[in-house]
Fold these 2 entries.
Entry 1:
Amino acid sequence: MLFRLAWRLFTEISPRLAIKAGWLWVYKGMGAVRAYRRRLLRGEVFPPFLFLALTNACNLRCHGCWIESRGEKHSLDSEDVDRVIAAGKRQGSYFYTLLGGEPMIYEGLWELIARHPDCYFQIITNGMFHDEGNVERIRKLGNVTPLVSIDGMAASNDDRRGPDVFEAAVAGMRRLKQRKILFGVATTMTSRNMEEVLSDEYVRFIIEQGAMYLWFYVFRPVGADPSPHYCVGREQMIELRRRLLELRRRHPIMLIDTYWNARGEAVCPAALGMGYHIGPRGSIEACPPLSFACETIHAEAEKGSGTFCRNGPDGASHKRCLTPFPPNDNDNLFDTINQSEFLRGFSKFVNERTRGCVILEHPQELVEFLKASGVKDYSGRDALAELAAGTPRGSHDMKGEEIPEDYWVYRFLKNQLFFGMSGYG
Ligand code: SF4
């Protein structure tokens, strides 16, 4: 597989773009992981990587999406995004995932990316905006990899995403391929499309479109339209894991998951503090589907947040003082995240219950934890009520039936290298 993948990289990706990805994504990604681990040893919390939800605006209404795109529109201020990235760089973090809503709707997207040539950006997109102009911008910038959301072949994909979405996204991928751009496909596995998306035919189809990596997600029943019938059961989860390992040996494409470490044990990236989500209103959230926060990038002490401030009598921080930090002082993003009782509390809450996903396994307890933490709901809906109405179910924690990585390439990637969201070793 490795030689065939290397040949694809050599023949299908522009050398300039491959070198940029190797340096900015892989090499600097390894540095970010090492810096993250050193922080952990010092008892500090700051992720090697951040999700930036640039806007909640979107042109689609997919089933099971947690973003409220019908109501009020919210977008991150580009100066704030610059400050967040600047704060991240000071911690050695140079990789940022841009999402939404639909990030390619965000005004000033290309200027933002151009202002940070020393960073690498992954754009999670529904693939409807890869016209000639945008594809050429991506090629010119060079520090961008689109991740196109496709959930099966036309029928399965459009069943969740809407009519004609598949066709438009595939047309866009062909333009990316023509310009030798490094891109990937993100596929959400559901109880309905699992047979299809974990087949040799599907993986071959994705390779033919020119994608170099295929990132698999497992469906979460969240949002205003949670669609729990799409959830994957325990037997399906074990089968899914087994087939993923088989496909990895057979196909010249990186098949990514962020659910299991090299030993096949479940991981929750949010509980490990590996990647926090900055919402379109600046909220600092534990993970994308959970639109709750106590702090924002505006460093204002949210009521009840327990954020420490620096205005204590002796200059040292003290608790619940409610004295807001100077506005827009994102230099303080490290402090805000590192001292967040909520984010540290979330890790402890998860680790005391599961290695898997608390949204699936403990929705009601999660609601109690969130209420006790004094969070603010940034969903634009009553997301606490949505969670409380959830049925507890199994997640990717397959206790007692773990299936370790059986291919050295993925063992290495999961232990050492930036893989999805860094080393889970
Ligand atoms: S809480 Fe669930 S969805 Fe969020 S990062 Fe953890 S495993 Fe993933």
Note: The chain has 16 helices and eleven strands.
Entry 2:
Amino acid sequence: MHPDDRRTALRTLSLAGLGAALGGLLSLLLRWQLSFPGRPIPLLGPLLFPDHRGAVPAASYPALFTLHGTVMIFFAVTPALSALALIRLPPLVGRERPAHPALHRAALGLFALGLALLLAGLHARFGAPAFGWTAAPPLSTARSPGAGATLWLLAVACSALATLLGSFDVLATIVGAPKLAWSRLPLSAWGHLFAATLNALFLPILLGALALLFSDRHLGTALFTAPSQPGGDALVYQHLFWIFGHPEVYILILPVWGAVSDALARAADRPPALRRAVVAAMAAVTLLSGLVYGHHLLTAGLSPLLAQGFMTLTLLISLPSAAFVASWIATLHGASLGPDAPASYSLAAVVLFVLGGLTGIPLALVTTDRFLHDSAFVVGHFHLVMAATILLGLFAMLHEALGRLGLRAPSIPVARLHAWATALGALGVFIPMLRLGLGGAPRRLYDPDLYRYLHPLLAWQRVATVAAALLFTAQLAWLVAWWRGRR
Ligand code: HEM
């Protein structure tokens, strides 16, 4: 690998690692508060909340989940995918270097600036941003007077711009590859190609929504005012955000789908089954992803006709996702898999993706979503189908990419153990959150103890927290194993 590209990739991966560590730590704080609200957090409690006798102060809880969601999506998974595209893509299309390496260097600078702005916002007057990763007004406008909210806005804009630059290079690297044969393009490359296309289409919408939010905060406009106030409409922001927000899920998972398909085919020592169907499925998902976003707004007062339209389109988009599963099963059918680390991560990712995907069906239906919307069931669902599946997919890609960086990956037994410990840990965290949601537990709820109807479900909260601690420990163990054997 060219030394400049290697340096950029290593730095971007390190930044993503830092983001993941911070996001993971925040999730443990959230989990502890939900399980032991009255008990100080061991070790960290006195450091983080010196004047508080319980776990997390009420005013800090919204800031914790806002930061957790924002860091994990915009400063952990996104830069990791950007670095892995820089490392993995050129050889996949027969090139030595990406088309525009400078774009990745600029992206690294923007990711770093964004993360610094986000962390600076924690110390802002009137406190850290506390309006969720979706930053819906008026929470993110009139209800957030301090600089923290504006720094959050600028931070996410930096991450979006960095991703856009990286995506322009991905498109140029693939489409401009001199000896490219589309019929033989690996599915990993197709995944990056469709993800970059979605970034190019939908990140400008996020940037536009953030610019309008900035205008409401600082330029005296009233585009997203609360219903009680004359002028704009806060719901318009939610439409703009989710027009980007739902394709964002596919932006993050398309490269993983491609990598999983290639890893399983390599381990089975045969070409991926139903290859053309998989490429067509990726294209279908790319086309439909901008049309299903309304399922995030089914309880926001949409007209019944519109709500039914979004429900139908959402059920439709699950069909191409099923094509991936069919291809993975057909590829593995009758094959004897040798010991292979990327294949272990991929198999674990397939299990979580299928389970997580199935839990999406009741959320797509107008009827059941009325009950489940904004509950812990939603949090369980997207962590299974997105967060945990992507985490495993990233490790499958990283295990291969380390070689190109001149570093050694952990041994196959260590990687296999890590893959299944991560999968079991994720199931242990997020299945209880599905159960809690079915029991009526809302998401973004500070203290479940305050509600008697949630008392019988406390054990599920505690199972999820113990599993989260095990999941976190498994990642630390992987890091130690890798660090000790990296050269
Ligand atoms: C690995 C361990 C993880 C654990 C234990 C965890 C735990 C949690 C919990 C408990 C919440 C809900 C807080 C609440 O509503 O009260 C949450 C929210 C969230 N998590 Fe995670 N999470 C993890 C990983 C991830 C990853 C890898 C991602 C992204 C790729 C992610 C993205 C989010 C987002 C976007 C939210 C919503 C934040 C909001 O409500 O604004 N999480 N997480």
Note: The longest helix spans residues 234-268.
